Amino acid sequence: MGLGLAALLFVSGCSRAPAPPSPEFEQASRRWTALYAQKLDAAYLDPSIGEIEAQLQRVPADSVDSAASQSLLQRIQEGRTRMQAAEEEQRRAVASAQTLPTQDPSQTNFPQTPEPVAAEPADAGPEDAGVIPGPQVGTPVTEVAAGFRGCFIRFVPLTVEGRGMRETWQLSDRASCQMEFPTHRDTALVIEDGRVLALLPKSAMRTVRRYQDGGTVPEDGGR
């Protein structure tokens, strides 16, 4: 029994303890974790990945980190292969999309692009037509009263046949107004529903005297 115990002690004393943790693996693992957290799968194609692989390959085979280093090294290599294949496939897809067909569309099933038709310019009216200054048909009466440099003032009410009594405005006799709005001289602006209904020459207006009995007589005496 004493000899057996001695032999057991002898065998136990000859077994080697595993090597301590590898600093190379610790550094490589830390660098890989930080790189992947920053770039995700793009980390497999990062230029610095070669240094990480070199560190993993220097981990001693008898180190407690040997298996982990080989596993990480294999993961990096497989990931790089996968990303390179995806990158190549994307490059081919882009190149294919940029390639134009060289066949004659009339002889193939390629759709023909219709030729653009030049749009006709909009009719701008006569060449000598320009913007006429001053109120026009449709101008709001509020604008007539407040705008145009205050050059338009109220005129006498006017009875429009078929429409009844209507408000009218006329151009002020101030010299500056007469010069700025010459087309509105001797013109009455007939207002209806808050807007200019018509520009009526004063020469077309007829003054009628109305008597208390309802009768009317033109100023020219009915001649």
UniProtKB/TrEMBL annotation:
At the top level of its lineage, which domain of life is listed? Bacteria
Residue ranges, annotated region (Disordered):
79-125
Question: Could you tell me where the Polar residues compositional bias lies?
Answer: 99-112
Protein name per Swiss-Prot or TrEMBL: Uncharacterized protein
Q: Which organism is it from?
A: Corallococcus aberystwythensis
Q: What is the lineage of its organism?
A: Bacteria, Pseudomonadati, Myxococcota, Myxococcia, Myxococcales
